[in-house]
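PROTEIN DESIGN WORKSHEET
SECTION A - STRUCTURE
LENGTH: 289
TOKENS:
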């Protein structure tokens, strides 16, 4: 099915997003980097809207759909801010698994809110396997001195909670709305939220001292994010949230591979087992949808 292919593409682009973003926040403040990335995502999303010609349908969006898209955008912005703060403080191989725990909550919410109960027993078993894999990965040995504190974990957990809310709210809001146009609306909300935080905290002065190399990585991260979102929201519009979200979370495979090549962040045997369990749980959901 086309929506499964879209979910796989979303995972690939999301994996690249994490690595590119990590490269772009070594010196740059994470809030400022998030705001800059959002600008790139919004431009990219508008281009896709004009490519498919859906800009004329914006006035036809129902108020209920608009409300859920706005709420989804707020949840996305909150998730991003927490996620990139966590990335700036801790190991990418520690932060990513906690962020991916949003899968468990999303699947449960999809079953409750949207009645996605086909092969319910398999989905619940797969969710337990996913959860076990996540716990094993989070418990991996420390590989970065910066992770000695627990602040990064708090931000990572908050990112996961908001990410789960994002998927459910977006599913409710994307009904009857062209997926690219829905992405634009959500991204616009994230843009306002992220820049509001930058201005409120007085971090806009960091624009004058931006490292050009890091700015390039932030821009590339924004393009990857935009591509991931466009694929992702097409997938949840056409398919089951409880299947799309786990597939999307397989982006961790891309992230782990590149984190080893780029940052030399190795997995312990326990973490590798956890990663395998996450893959098994995801494949169970995909094949027994």
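SECTION B - SEQUENCE
RESIDUE ASSIGNMENT:
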């Amino acid at each position: 099915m086309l929506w499964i292919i879209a979910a796989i593409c979303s995972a690939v682009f999301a994996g690249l997003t994490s690595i590119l973003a990590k490269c772009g926040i070594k010196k740059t403040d994470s809030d400022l980097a998030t705001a800059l990335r959002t600008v790139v995502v919004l431009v990219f999303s508008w281009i896709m809207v004009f490519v498919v010609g859906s800009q004329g349908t914006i006035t036809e969006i129902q108020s209920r759909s608009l409300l859920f898209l706005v709420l989804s955008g707020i949840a996305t912005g909150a998730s991003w801010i927490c996620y990139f703060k966590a990335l700036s403080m801790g190991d990418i191989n520690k932060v990513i698994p906690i962020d991916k725990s949003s899968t468990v909550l999303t699947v449960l919410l999809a079953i409750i809110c949207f009645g996605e109960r086909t092969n319910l027993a398999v989905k619940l078993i797969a969710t337990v396997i996913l959860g076990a894999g996540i716990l094993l990965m989070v418990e991996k040995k420390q590989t970065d001195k910066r992770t000695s504190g627990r602040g990064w974990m708090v931000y990572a957990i908050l990112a996961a909670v908001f990410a789960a809310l994002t998927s459910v709210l977006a599913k409710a809001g994307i009904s009857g709305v062209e997926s690219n146009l829905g992405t634009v609306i959500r991204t616009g909300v994230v843009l306002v939220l992220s820049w509001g935080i930058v201005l409120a905290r007085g971090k806009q002065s960091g624009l004058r001292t931006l490292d050009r190399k890091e700015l390039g990585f932030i821009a590339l991260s924004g393009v990857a994010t935009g591509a991931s979102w466009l694929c992702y929201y097409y997938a949840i519009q056409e398919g089951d949230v409880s299947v799309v979200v786990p597939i999307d979370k397989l982006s961790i495979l891309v992230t782990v591979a590149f984190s080893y090549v780029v940052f030399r962040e190795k997995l312990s045997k326990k973490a590798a087992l956890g990663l395998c369990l996450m893959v098994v749980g995801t494949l169970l959901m995909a094949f027994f949808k």
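SECTION C - NOTES
The two ends are 12 Å apart (CA to CA).
Confidence is low (pLDDT under 50) at residues 140-148.
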